[in-house]
Structures are given as structure tokens and as C-alpha cells.
Amino acid sequence: MRTICFYFQVHQPLRIKPYRFFDIGDDHYYWDDYSNKSIMRKVAQKCYLPMNALLLDLINHYNGAFKVSFSISGVCLDQFELYAPDVLESFQKLVATGHVELLSETDAHALCSLKSNDEFARMVKNHKEKIKKHFNGYEPKVFRNTELIYSDSIGAMVYELGYRGILTEGAKHILGWKSPNYVYQNAIKPELKVLLKNFQLSDDIAFRFSNKTWPAYPLTTDKFVNWINMIPKEEETLNLFMDYETFGEHQWADSGIFDFMKALPEAVFQGSDFGFSTPSEVLGRAKNIAPIHVPTPISWADEERDLTAWLGNDLQDEAFEKLYQLEHLVKQIEDEEIQRDWTYLQTSDHFYYMCTKFFSDGDIHAYFSPYDSPYDAFINYMNALSDFILRVEQHLKKQIL
Amino acid sequence: MKVLMFGWEFPPHISGGLGTACYGLVKGLVHHKQDIIFVVPKLWGDEEPLADFVNASDVTVDYREKKFREIWKNLTYLEVSSFLVPYLSPEEFKKYSDYALHDRTDVDESIFSNKFEFSGKYGKDLLQEVSRYALVAAQIAKSKDHDVIHAHDWLAYPAGIAAKQMSGKPLVAHIHATEFDRSGESVNKPVFDIEYAGLHAADHVVAVSHLTRNIVINKYGVHPDKVSVLHNAVLDASIIESKVKKKVPEKIVTFLGRITFQKGPEYFVEAAKKVLERDPNVRFVMAGSGDLLNAMIKRVAELRIGTKFHFTGFLKGQDVDDMYAMSDVYVMPSVSEPFGIAPLEAVRHNTPVIISKQSGVAEVLQNAIKIDFWDVDAMADAIFALLHYQSISKMFKELGSEELKNLKWEHVAAKLVTVYEKITEE
């Protein structure tokens, strides 16, 4: 049987409050509790709660023939605990059905896989523990890195941590003529299997669904099933990976996105030879075809599918370098607050806000940023980071004395 | 298209930004093969020959034309308050208005003569010149063939209206600054009235920013469909490599402009205090003069930051360029700035800029830090960041010059031509 593999990314960053330079050395709390809470409540009402309820209905209705997978970042789980225990509970119910798979990722939705093996391992371990704690001992088996960032060596690192499967983007420039609808293997560690996102069909739902200038608008389940039937018979897996906030937040309820998802399983069962699987099931059944070579990191962001949304301009690079210069110092400190802030300061979103590609992908960046400009984002981050650096130095001095 | 354009000044003899903007626009229009008749109250003879220049002082008005009676009727209200002098400081204004109220008794007859020598300045007889200019405009509109009329700011609006009455051709009112920008909420009613009349008589209004467009819509009640935005551009986008080196070890943060309410100098002083409390290795410079200068000096003394805060007085020519070149940060905290070309000059000197969100230039310049003029905390924070986090200045230098290259008068003129085409078709 051919199969559709749904994976939804659930993530909310911990946003930094307006932090002025006069606060440096004085105010050591950086997080914008008010906006973090209000955004979490807004997204909970618009997306998490209604969509979780819908998925639970579908799973029950089809007795598990319909299934999905999630990756929930640690920084998001922390905010569920604080601001949306109702959302956490609804995810717990979904996982308890046994037809929902949870994936591993870095605790802070961080970019540390690009910088430090140690930090990466620490973040993955912490995330694993959080999942275990919240989901009744659940242990994720498949990995997905922040924003689907992947390279051969990141894959090898993930393999060393004990994983046998990873998700990433089916970027055109790495696939060439190849299809994303097969299971591939890591070029360094062949035992690590790689699932690639079919960006065409994923983005039809995630980005184009409500776009009235799109020739295929409006997207109906019939149309969609028609498209998946056009996939050559020998291609067995269709990986539909997207932000969970697609449902109700990026695509509003009045666009019909919920109705689309509600009707999709029936249309797929009736109109095609596809079913639904979780990543582990896909990997378990897979006949490996070929290695996929990814010498430089890819991601699922923007047209380029590279790292330029987070790193590469001077602002991002200065902030990133200054942050990771602290790694060996922070490792010597056993202070809960220092460790917490160290983790949260690594969240990739802080660097995303500093992106200056405003003339091409700027629109989508602006939509996701709480700042007026990348420069404002940078200044605020650097102010908070400057205070953090002072704290780290002071702690170390104290420890020596 | 033949454009009959009314301005008040044209380079090289200018006293404000209006002349420079007119020059850029005319240059852009010439690039797009438009014929321009440019009328100014007084020609000096050394203007670049871009247009068919008409010296209003040379024009003989022939009062036998019937329509003059009608035009004059519409102009009489100008005479009532002709002592009004909008570009003077309050002290000077008081001097002139005392003179006008006590010493003058009636309207100067000379404006009805066949010929009239304009000063072309912003002096005490301004209103009288404005109304005479309108009569001349009507005469020119009668004798010179044209397809569209274009008037720059209120000084030329009565001329634009009169020309339209004479020839019946469509009128574009270009607004570079409104009375609200110049005077805050305490507007000079006669000037407002002229602006109002011009904006409503116009077939289309062109504003230099969305900020100004909103004022035109909200304060003058002009229908939004009638108002387009044409941002100003730069004449020369090249980067200026200066040899000038500052002679002090500290970083220099500069305010450069008229020290008046409109420019928000007091917010700069307050932000300086906040920065100096945390980082004494900075010097602040306030370059320029204006009616708030003494108040600023007083405030700086009161805050005890005099050794780090300097006043240069009015700067011109090379001194202005040197000041930009020596600065590590340029701040324009304007309370209300229809456009504001100065930050673009700073960018040409590779100097990072902080501009208020209440400026039109903020709508076109991406590589700048934008703050609310009143938010001195944000201003201080931005100054501190530019002085301490190197990568922003580096990015501004790399991207800012690229951005300038896109701000061309040719592009502005191209949009203007479509406006002309639209209203002449209607």
C-alpha cells in the first residue's frame, strides 16, 4: 500500500521583551511574558485546540487508519505548561490513541547542530526527557532537526545519538531528477534512513491553500487526490510536512482549511490506493533505494532552502558568534536560571527576526516577526545577550572565589 | 506633454529643500522627454537650462482680459493678512507683524501695475508677492500653450489656480510640506486657507510621503483617490569618501538641522543624557540654529552634560559635509517631517542613521533605525547599539549605498508622467 506521511511542526519561541541597554546589568529577566502568553492563547484558540479536536475525531472515526506525527519543541512544551495546559492535555489525548507519533528535536528549536556536537546532544537529551515526562514515558524514535536543517554530517551526528530515521526537505538542488517520494539513506551512515518532504504538495496546503491568485484555487480534496494519483505507482511514500499553525493560523478557518482536512482522509481512502502512516511505520517498511548526498546544510525555509533565513548577514553572524563563544563558560555553571536562559537564547527564531532578505522573502519574515525591522530585532537581542554575558562572567568569578 | 510649472525658487538660488526637489523633478521629467515651462518669481540667469524658464518679474500683465476680474476676486483674501510671514522665527514674526498692524494702512497699489519686481524671497511682503504671482500666472497661462499645470506648495497654489481658471487645463498640486508640519497644531489660518483652496482646486494632488498624504486627507478633507504619493529622490547617490578625521577619541553622535519644534531637538538632548549615563565615551553635537537653540543650551547645562554636548551654530557648504563625515551616528528625531532628505546625505557619507517614524524618508529608507520621536529610551538604545554592535554599521554601509541608487528622480518623474496622462485624459 502506498502511504501519506503527515508531520506537523509545533513550535512557539520564547520572545524577548523590549530590553534597553540601560537594563543591561540590572534586569536579568529577558522574556516577554505578556506577548508570549497572549500569542500562545491566540494560537491555542485558532489552531491547536480546534485542530487537535478534529484530528482526534478523525483518528477515532477511522479506527487508526488515519494517523499523523508531531514534533513539539521543548520551548513550546514549556509554554503549554505555563499558558495552555488545555492544549497540552489535548496533545496527550492524541498520543494516547497510539496512532500519533512524536519526534525528537532540540529542546530550544535551536541551530546548535551547526555549531556544537556537545550542545546538540544536550538539547536532544533534554527534549527527550520533556517528552517522556509529559507523554507518559513516550520515547521518540525518529529525529527531525530545527526547520528540517540537514546535512550528511548532521545525519551522522543524529545516528550517533541512537536514531535510525530523520526527516528533511526534499530540496530541488539536492534531489535533482530524483523523487522525494522514496526513502533514502544518509551518505555517511547508511543505517540512518532519510524521509524527504514533498514540497510541492506540502506547500499547496501550507502556503497556497487560500491564495486566490493561485490557478488551482480553491483547493478541494478531489483536486488533491487527483494530484496524488498522478504520482508514479512505484513511488510509495508521500511526505507532507508542514507547520501545525497552518491550520487556523496561517490559513484562517474561513479559508475552509479545517473542512479540507476533515474531508481529506475519506477522499484519499475512496479515491486512491494511498493510506496513512507515521514516520516509524514508513521507515519500518522501507526498501532503501539510494543514499542522498547533502554536503552543505539544507532547510525547508524560503525559496533557497538553505540557512540564509537564520545565518549569513552580519547581524546574524555577530549574534550567533557572540552567543556560542559562551558555550564552554556556561557548561561550567550549575545555575538553573543561567542554563534556562542559555537554552532559550539559542532558539532559531531570534536569528530569523534578524534576516534582511526583505526584498525577496521579506513578506513572510515580516509576518512572523514581532519587530519592525531586522535591526530592531538585532539590537534587542544583543542587549539581552550583553546582560547574559555579564551574568556568566560574574558567576564564574564567584565560583572561583 | 507640455507642463506649465510654478515654483518659488530654483537652484542655485535656494533657501530651502523645495528648490532642490523642483530641480530633481524637472531633471527627471526632461529625462522622460517632457517639455517644461518653469515659472519662478525671480530668475537670476544662472539656472541650468533644463526648462523654458519664465521670470515672473518680466511678465507684463494685460488687465483688459475679462477673466482677470474673476481671478482677482478670488485673490482678495490674500491681502487681508498680508503681514503674515511664515518662515520667520517668533521674535522676528512679532517685529514684522507689529509693523504691519501699526504702520501699514492699505494694500500696496504696485501689484496692480503692469510689471512688478519680485524679490523671490520669503520676506515680509510674501503674501503680496504670492497674489501678484497669481496674476502673472494667469497672463502666462493665456499666452503659453500647455497641457497640464503643476504648482509646488502653497506659495504657488494661487498661481496654479489662476492659471487653471485662465486655460482650463488640469492642475496638479504638489505638496512638499503642509502648514501642520511647519507650525504643529497652531497653524497660520491664511496659509492653511491657501493650501486648502489649492488642494481642492487641483485635479490631482501629489504628496511627498504617505505621512503627508494622510495629512492632506485627514486635515484638508481631500478625497483619498485624488492623492498620490511620490517620494523624493536623490540627485547624486555616490558615496562621499571624506579625508576629514575627527580629532577626539570619542564616538560622535550628531543632530544636524534647524533647531526648531518641527525637528525635535529636545528629544535628542534627553537621549544624549541617557546614553552618557551609561557610556561617557561619546560626544554629542547639535549643528544648526533656530528658535529653540537657547532653550537647548540651557537644558544641556541643566543636565550637566556640557562637556560632552557641543553646539556648532549654523553650518553650510563644506562644513556640513565634514560634520557628516566625522559622525559615527546621525540622528533625525523630527516631530513632523514630510520627507527629510538629510538622512540620505548621511548615508552618502557612510554614516549610520536613526530617523523618526514621523518622517517621510522612513517610508523609503530600509537601512536605518526607526524610532518614534518622543521615545527617548528607544533613541538612546539605538544610539548605544550603533556605537557598540559593529555589525549594524557594517550592514548599513553595505546596503545603504545600494538603496540610494534606487532612489532616482527618473523613477519619480516616470510616475508623475502617468499622473499627467491620467488627468489629461479625464
Automatic annotation (TrEMBL), chain A:
Residue ranges of every copy of the Glycoside hydrolase family 57 N-terminal domain listed in the record: 6-288
Keyword set, alphabetical order: Carbohydrate metabolism
InterPro entries: GH57_Enzymes, Glyco_hydro/deAcase_b/a-brl, Glyco_hydro_57_N
GO biological process, one term: carbohydrate metabolic process
GO molecular function, one term: catalytic activity
Keyword Acyltransferase: no
Superkingdom per UniProt: Bacteria
Pfam families per the UniProt record, alphabetical: Glyco_hydro_57
Similarity remark: Belongs to the glycosyl hydrolase 57 family.
PANTHER family: ALPHA-AMYLASE-RELATED, ALPHA-AMYLASE-RELATED-RELATED
Protein name, UniProt field: Alpha-amylase
Organism of this sequence: Belliella pelovolcani
From TrEMBL, chain B:
InterPro entries: Glyco_trans_1, Glyco_trans_4-like_N
Pfam families from the UniProt entry: Glyco_transf_4 (PF13439), Glycos_transf_1 (PF00534)
CDD domains (UniProt xref): GT4_PimA-like
UniProt domain Glycosyltransferase subfamily 4-like N-terminal: residue ranges: 133-234
GO molecular function, one term: glycosyltransferase activity
Glycosyl transferase family domain: residues covered: 241-398
Organism the protein comes from: Belliella pelovolcani
Protein name per the record: Glycosyltransferase involved in cell wall bisynthesis
Domain of life, per lineage: Bacteria
PANTHER family reported in the protein's UniProt record: D-INOSITOL 3-PHOSPHATE GLYCOSYLTRANSFERASE (PTHR12526:SF510), GLYCOSYLTRANSFERASE (PTHR12526)
Key words, A-Z: Glycosyltransferase, Transferase
Taxonomic classification: Bacteria, Pseudomonadati, Bacteroidota, Cytophagia, Cytophagales
